Amino acid sequence: MLTDSDLQAIWLTVRLASIVTLILLVVGTPIAWWLARTKVWWKGTIGAVVALPLVLPPSVLGFYLLLTLGPHGPIGQLTQALGIGPLPFTFWGLVVASVFYSLPFMVQPLQTAFEAVGERPLEVAATLRASPLDAFFTVAVPLAAPGFLTAAILTFAHTVGEFGVVLMIGGNLPGITRVVSVQIYDHVEALEYASAHRLAAVMLIFSFLVLLILYAWRPRPRNGG
Amino acid sequence: MGIQACFRLDWPGFSLDVDLALPTRGVTALFGHSGSGKTTLLRCIAGLERAPQGRLIVNGEVWQDEQRWVPTYKRPIGYVFQEPSLFSHLSVISNLRYGLKRMSDEQRVSLDQAIDLLGIGHLVDRKPDRLSGGERQRVGMARALAVSPRLLLMDEPLAALDLKRKQEILPYLERLHDELDIPVLYVSHSPDEVARLADYLVAMEDGRVLASGPLADTLARLDLPIRLGEDAGAVLDATVAEVDKDWHLVRVDFSGGSLWARDSGLVVGHRVRVRVLARDVSLAEQPGTSSIQNVLRGCVDAVGDDVHPGVALVRVQVGDTVLLSRLTKRAAASLGVKPGLELWVQVKSVALME
Q1: Relative to the CA of B275, which of B20, B226, B228, B262 has its CA 20 to 30 Å away?
Q2: Residue B254 host element (H or E)
Q3: What sign results for the dihedral spanned by CA atoms B12, B14, B18, B22?
């Protein structure tokens, strides 16, 4: 069945996707909230930047990230000055890259969900003595809960499926940056088709289950207003 | 004490420019067509809208001026929106407790009182999507009351409901008026609601205040006839004094006389609002015999123009009460109607607002 290095790759992938999803929940929520509610004219620009990873070839994104995070890049110099060392070819370098790569998968569903919540429930909360922060956590977030679930699932799944960015920024280091997609690539390169099949089947089933959950699970329409 | 509200704002296609002094007791109706700015004014008072130039002082507390701005969540208000806007993720009781948990003010309306007043005791465990439209709005009102507001703002709370639901809710609004000592600002474009509920009237048009004052006085103004709907008319407060079972009539007494009206099942002692339209009031030199049962002695107070050049509006003082009568100018001339003239006022029909 699956070899130790396969299991190692699966565990690494799950760890990476979980951490990235958690980080993006924290980072993506305020961005989505801001995009859903701001009226400034340059909102579209920010929206486009957030959506860029959707259309950009992963190798292009990976290339720029490599330069930025590398020893001579601005972030690379910062991390070196802080004594962390350059991030490329480390697990945390992969995390940073994946955060950028999966950003739109977190922000866009959340933005849509926040827009659907609208202004009214927050106004109601304000007339019921709730401060804006209070109203955000007790009204906006619960009402946008289906959006949070969709966003988290999509982000997790998308991070699991990344390949190009990993190769550019993480290389292929067992237990550090060798995620499932890279492991499959390795198996194929080495003509180990049986191993590639098993791991590919795991990915296929996982992806299908994720989509099944997303499509089969429809939130009850909420029409309290 | 009272509310001083002065707001100016300019939006594309709409501007608001008001300077008002309002009482902080009873129900004040902000009345006008849609687009007259009444909802915007209410939102400015709630702090949901921030007029660039504004001054708002409520019972001596500054809520807005050049330096100060009290955000909505720190204003001791209750707000009922046109749509009930219940939190769909919370049960009815959690909706009701939402504001209650967060208030720092002393509690003057208990949750049970709010629930009782609006008759929603049997609904508290339900989710909002399991309620009818009328029930939702009653929960919305109870939720606004549960924070013990020192000022209750209501933005057309009945407008989204059909006639039957309106009839279902109006009695609760009247109870609120009668049983709680909370001043209410009530936005409405419905003449009926205003005639039934309001004590004080602010008539608005195009973002400006047309007239404001106690309801009866404002309706009886001839320089600027404020119409509740199609017709000019007077509104008076009266008490049921006698029920005539044989003829299915009730006698209501007001300061200045009494009127007979159709019996709608009222009991003696009940307070009612009576609406007397100008078109139902005629004037005569002699009481005479006619089909009209309600004949009162009155004195002409003022004569004004009506919308049509052939018609005049005459304001008649009956005791302490003012009635309006619509006559053709020819009839007014032949009667010699002028201020000070004593004559008989015949009231063909009255509507009890109940």
Answers
A1: B20
A2: strand B249-254
A3: negative
Query: H/E element holding B213?
Result: strand B208-214
Q: pLDDT tens digits, residue range B20-78? A: 999 988 899 999 888 899 999 999 999 999 999 999 999 999 999 999 999 999 999 99
Chain A positions touching B145 (Cβ under 8 A) are none
Residues B114 and B263 in one domain: no
Class of residue B69 by CB neighbours under 10 A (exposed 0-12, middle 13-18, buried 19+): middle
Domain count, chain B: 2
Comparing CA positions, the residue from B195, B228, B225 lying closest to residue B312 is B225
Range 61-120 of A in CB contact (< 8 A) with B: 120
Task: For residue B86, list chain A residues with Cβ-Cβ distance below 8 A.
Answer: 224-225
For chain B, the residues whose C-beta falls within 8 A of a C-beta of chain A are 46-48, 71-74, 77-79, 81, 83-89, 98-99, 102-104, 127-129, 136, 143-144, 147
Contact list in B for residue A126 (CB cut-off 8 A) is 47-48, 71-73
Neighbours of A163 (CB within 10 A): 16
Chain A residues 122-151 with CB within 8 Å of chain B: 123-132, 134-135, 138-139, 142-143, 145
Inter-chain touch A128–B99, beta carbons under 8 Å: yes
Rounded Cα distance between B40 and B258, Å, is 41
Q: How far apart are CA B42 and CA B20, in angstroms?
A: 12
pLDDT bracket for residue A225 (50, 70, 90)? very low
Question: In the block, which residue shows the tokens 């990230």?
Answer: A65
B224 lies in some domain: no
Beta-strand relationship, B271-277 and B351-353: antiparallel
A-chain residues within 8 Å CB-CB of B84? 224-225
Closest to B274 measured CA to CA, from B188, B218, B338, B215: B215
Which CATH superfamily hosts domain A4-216?
MetI-like (1.10.3720.10)
Q: Of B165-174, B200-209, B329-338, where does mean pLDDT reach its minimum?
A: B165-174
Which residue range(s) make up the domain with B13? 3-219
Quick one: B213 and B275 in the same domain? no
Residue B265 included in any domain: yes
- Directed axis angle between helix A91-117 and helix A58-69, to 10°? 120
What dihedral angle (degrees, nearest 10) is formed by the CA atoms of B152, B156, B159, B165? Answer: 20
SS3 letters across B104-141: CCCCCCCHHHHHHHCCCHHHCCCCHHHCCHHHHHHHHH
- What ranges do the domains of chain A cover? 4-216
Q: How far apart are CA B213 and CA B203, in angstroms?
A: 9
- CA B183 – CA A92 distance, rounded (Å): 61
Comparing CB atoms, the residue among B74, B88, B104 nearest residue A224 is: B88
User: Among residues B155, B189, B219, which one ends one of the domains?
Assistant: B219
B90 alpha-carbon distance from chain centroid:
32
Question: Cβ A129–B83 below 8 Å, yes or no?
Answer: no
Looking at the fold, whether B148 and B47 belong to one and the same domain comes out as: yes
